[in-house]
Amino acid sequence: MRQTEDFRPTAIGGRDGLRATLQNVSEVTGEEERVQVLATRLDNGNLFYAVAVAPESRYDDYAPAFQRAIESLRFVR
User: Fold this and answer.
1) How many CB atoms lie within 10 A of CB 33?
2) I need a surface site. Which of 30, 38, 56, 70 has the fewest CB within 10 A?
C-alpha cells in the first residue's frame, strides 16, 4: 500500500479532519484499488477514523455513496 497524495483537510460529522488517499493491489482480485482514510479527533481525545475502499476503475462510481456516508455522521458531545 502506498500513499498517492498528501494529507488533505476534510470534514467528518461537522468536525475538522484529515484525509489520505492510498493505492493498493487487492489480494482477492489482483486489481488496483483506491483506499481513502479519513480521521478526526473527538472531544475525549480518541481518534475516529473511516476507511473507504473500491476498485480503482470503479472508485468514481462509489465516491458519492462514501461521501454521503461521511456527511451523515454526527458526534454527540
Assistant:
1) 20
2) 30
Helices (H), the chain: 59-71
Read off the pTM.
0.86
- Give CA–CA dist 25/33, Å, rounded: 6
Give per-residue pLDDT as tens, 18-54: 999 999 999 999 999 999 999 999 999 999 999 999 9
Give the position of cell 475502499.
53
Name the CATH topology of 2-60.
Nuclear Transport Factor 2; Chain: A, (3.10.450)
The H or E element containing residue 12 is: strand 8-12
75 phi, psi to nearest 5 deg: -105, 130
